[in-house]
Amino acid sequence: MKMLICDDDPEFLELIHTFLQRNLTYSCQMELTDGRDALFRLLQEDTRYDLLLMDIRLEEDNGIEAARQVLEQYPQIPVIFITGYPDLYFERVFLTLRPWGFVKKPVNWDLLLALVQNCLRRQEENRKQFLSVRTKQGVAQIPMKEIRYVESQGHMIMFHMREEIYETYGRLTETQKQLPLYFICCHKSFLVNPAYIKIYETRQFVMENGVRIPISQMKRKEARQKFFSWLEHLGEEVF
Questions:
Q1: Do 16 and 117 belong to one domain?
Q2: Per the structure, how many domains does the chain have?
Q3: Tens digit of pLDDT per residue, the chain (239 long)?
Q4: Is 12 found in the same domain as 117?
Q5: Which of 18, 88, 202, 232 has CA 20 to 30 A from 188's CA?
Q6: What is the model's pTM?
Q7: Are residues 84 and 196 in the same domain?
Q8: 180 Cβ neighbours under 8 A, 6+ residues apart
Q9: Among residues 69, 97, 127, which one ends one of the domains?
């Protein structure tokens, strides 16, 4: 799990970091930042954060605007606001942004811990069902069960869904690590969801929509074993 904490008070930033390190039951990597520009640099480098904790009164009152931009560009990242001015911001925040939570200073540490734990628990559950993919249009949350197959072409990864195709930059080996174990790597350029295989042949899978996915000679034994193991266990993730 990964968390991003943004506050322009360095002492409070270190305080909250130390508290969460000592009390979280989840193993969580935490990145600390003290302003809007640094916050967006980190998000551009890596979108795989499970939670953003941030002060609303950030750099002369632009915390709300920064959070609005975060939620528009990275809707998969929930936000918990922390502020020493709750009466000033409470209504604006919940009417316009709908964050995961809102904590006032001085901080009720038990409440903060409960909010963070609940949020990370939900994110962990979502990881089992959705894959976050950065496309040209933004970050998409893809239901993994609806992925027919994944195709690699050069530096591009294409997720073939029931109705559309999502494209992103990446490597197939790294993509496979993010998918459920039942996906079959039958070729250096393809990962296949066995739930959409209509016909198995020695050299190819025929998908239910008629698309033919090649099975390379090096992958034939592994692909056959994995496909029949999936059939035997009715798609359970047991291998």
A1: yes
A2: 2
A3: 899 999 888 999 999 999 999 999 888 899 999 888 888 899 888 777 889 998 876 655 566 777 778 877 887 788 888 877 655 555 555 555 667 778 888 899 999 999 999 999 888 887 778 888 888 888 888 999 999 999 999 999 999 998 899 999 999 999 999 998 999 999 999 999 999 999 999 999 999 999 999 999 999 999 999 999 998 876 454 33
A4: yes
A5: 232
A6: 0.59
A7: no
A8: 128, 144, 237
A9: 127
Distance in angstroms (rounded) separating the CA atoms of residues 165 and 100 = 30
Boundary of a domain, candidates 111, 127, 143: 127
DSSP 22-80: HH-SS--EEEEE-SHHHHHHHHHH----SEEEEESS-TTT-HHHHHHHHHHH-TTS-EE
Residue 238 lies in a domain: no
- Which tokens in the block code for residue 125? 């559950």
Q: Tell me which residue range forms the domain holding 143.
A: 131-232
Angle (CA) 204-205-207 rounded to 5° is 145
Distance separating alpha carbons of residues 1 and 24, to the nearest angstrom: 11
Residue identified by tokens 């016909």 is 199
- Please identify which residue in the block is written with the tokens 């998409």: 140
Residues 32 and 87 occupy one common structural domain: yes
